[in-house]
Design goal:
2 copies of one chain form a homodimer. By secondary structure, chain A is of the alpha/beta class. The first copy, chain A, is 44% helix and 13% strand. The relative contact order of chain A is 0.17. Chain A has 2 domains: 4-48 and 302-396, Aspartate Aminotransferase, domain 1, CATH 3.90.1150.10; 70-296, Aspartate Aminotransferase, domain 2 (3-Layer(aba) Sandwich), CATH 3.40.640.10. Chain A is globular. Chain A has helices at 4-11, 15-30, 49-61, 64-67, 77-91, 106-117, 133-140, 159-165, 188-205, 266-280, 287-296, 304-320, 342-350, 376-396; strands spanning 36-37, 100-103, 123-128, 144-149, 170-175, 210-214, 237-242, 255-258, 332-336, 354-355, 357-358, 367-371.
Chain lengths: 397, 397
């Protein structure tokens, strides 16, 4: 009699969550240092010291009635002006504070965008592998989720497969670059081709196709990799940002949606975003955090730790014999399983105290995700276990 | 092609918001001190000093990775334990931390509860006058909103009207005590009668009827008024709480949903709440605020200011000749308009620089809401304007 879909979502643990709970029990049994938990994408690097300083200053200097009061539903005007300025500097493109909507983090950015755009029965395309909650969010907005596999090994867009999947019912495509779980970053040339494809398909089917860019890992890239500004390639783009990963503030739930001024009917799209936020119960984004990120948005946590972790893990696993594509961003390594059934492989890994997420819930088979936002020591100590796991497969064959 | 309902919600300003914008312009024209803005329910009393202290201590003493990290989706376990203990002390009834779900404030508490319970086509009853966003929230969850008028003058439950409105499709009744906009508090005797009625109707129609108690004003009561613990009168009750008004933290978006252990199938209801929160994009409630309210939940802001405002405003308006029922809680005075059309009356009030919200958007005609969460000086300076407005109506007749 209550809502069975919501009940099922509450009762059914995600694979990641299941593994996390297993890890908690196992650590209690044999000691935390003996369990190599690579399940969760929770930043292991602290927020920049300046974020703490700024919050303390705000608490010490601003009238609490103002500091903790309602901001306007779309976010405080001065906060949106600061973010617009930062986005303009990043992109070299015009950005309006009046088209920025502050959100309670990346998940809220996505649900608000989807509810603003989707009508029941519309299709939303995701490129597999993809973050599993995309399905939950899209279906709750009334959409049918359509999975399009990426190219094997590179995990870049398979344009033939994508072209074949776009239908007259396609309302949106969710793009996640840098990607969770693969770390792939979509290069400018592919974005240009994607823009061309979407425009062509729009003309064919007389509808509108929106690109929803989920970019929480935008600031986490390695070497000279750059994450292009997607609206420059396709105008009908919504950019969903969150400070969770870049500033190591995942629990504080703060991010934004950017509607580029070049978007056709930008004011209407923005109004629908405001309407969806209102209907879903987002009154305003947390006020103190709004003011804090406005002053710290240009910072990132000390990412050299992730860079070091990536290097040690990649070199160590390659040396053992594992295969993977080096990630350009985020903090995940997506590794080929040593047997066809990734879930079975990850079960076996538990015998070596390795907690790895099988790729099935990301919409592809045969891989596992290693979150390397952990201590560097954990990676170093885990390498012998990875070797023993590998060797156990060699013996079998 | 985008979602027209969300677009309409974003484009159509609420009456309150419209008035607020008018006030902003008018203040710029003639000076803020000359405009008597009673439109908004934004607490005017600062958060208790201890809240600021606790937040600073947390920032100074807790590892930022832990302080700003994800809590579990339902909220940090120690935070839920502290809230459960406080709820047990308040109610004298058993409360389980594992049936408390931390939310991003009152609006989120309501949308999550509604999405957990409602199936498309269900009916949700509200008692008019009611907070206008209840309609937005209930309709977004797929429900049909059914308005049941309260008794005139007292704004207490009209049991005959309510009994007539309950149908086999009734899934929930939203109760808001202390009430926005009337300040009415539902007494224990009426809650007992309500429990009896709902149980009787459930038996008749072979369905389940849930009581959703929206209680952000629970700590704001006057004299010896007490707000009863509703689950003691009706088991199938969800309690939605927010710290916005009691701790003057409306912008920080922090509250919770309590499923009482006496609720039949409490674990299922709680799972559906978790599922709805997940699907709507609420990953966890803001972490720093969770830890802060766990340490400050037993405090309230200095409510003597609201008590003083209520006294001065009530005495002043009664002396002039206005009629109203004295509010037992919250910070609103619901006053009879001097003509049938409350909107026309509030338009006329603008000539006297008085910004008052007509009752139409609360689902009743002929009244206006005065938010007295303003400075006491504003009330004192506004009384001559209220007198002049009153006299302008005497002259006409």
């Amino acid at each position: 009699m209550i809502n069975k879909k919501m009940l099922a979502l509450g009762q059914k643990r995600s694979a990641i969550r299941e593994l996390f709970e297993f890890g908690r029990k196992r650590k209690a049994e044999i000691g935390a240092e003996n369990v190599f938990d690579f399940s969760i994408g929770n930043p292991s690097v602290p927020a920049p010291e300046k974020v703490t300083q700024v919050m303390k200053e705000l608490l010490e200097t601003v009238d609490p009635v103002q500091l903790h009061g309602y901001t306007s539903a779309q976010g405080d005007a001065s906060v949106r002006a600061a973010i617009a300025a930062a986005e303009e500097e990043r992109s070299g493109q015009p950005v309006s504070p009046d088209l920025i909507y502050m959100t309670c983090g990346a998940a809220a950015s996505l649900t608000v965008s989807l509810h603003a755009l989707v009508n029941p029965g519309d299709e939303v395309i995701v490129l597999a592998p993809y973050f599993p909650e995309y399905r939950v969010f899209a279906e709750k907005a009334g959409a049918l989720l359509v999975e399009v596999p990426c190219l094997p090994d590179t995990f870049q867009i398979d344009f033939d497969a994508l072209a074949a999947a776009i239908s007259p019912r396609t309302k949106a495509l969710i793009l996640n670059s840098p990607n969770n779980p693969t770390g792939a970053v979509i290069p400018a040339a592919d974005l240009a081709r994607l823009g061309d494809l979407l425009r062509e398909k729009e003309a064919d089917c007389d509808g509108e196709i929106y690109l929803i860019c989920d970019e929480p890992y935008r600031a986490l890239v390695y070497g000279d990799v750059e994450v292009p500004y997607v609206p420059a390639f396709y105008e009908r783009t919504l950019v969903c940002y969150s400070y969770s990963k870049a500033l190591s503030l995942p629990g504080e739930r703060i991010g934004y949606i950017l509607v580029p001024p070049t978007m056709p009917n930008a004011a209407e799209i923005y109004a629908a975003v405001c309407g969806a936020g209102r209907a879903l119960g987002f009154v305003c984004a947390p006020a103190l955090m709004q003011y804090a990120v406005a002053k710290c948005g240009n910072l990132t946590a000390n990412l050299s730790v992730y860079e070091e972790n990536r290097r040690i893990l990649s070199e160590g696993l390659a040396d053992i014999g594992y295969t993977f594509t080096a990630p350009d961003g985020a903090f995940y390594l997506f590794v080929k399983a040593l047997e066809e059934d990734a879930a079975a492989f990850c079960e076996k890994a538990k015998d070596f105290e390795l907690l790895l997420v099988p790729s099935d819930s990301f919409g592809v088979k045969g891989y596992l995700r290693i979150s390397y936002c952990v201590s560097t020591q954990q990676i170093q100590r885990a390498l012998p276990a990875f070797r023993a796991l590998y060797e156990s497969y060699q013996k079998e064959n």
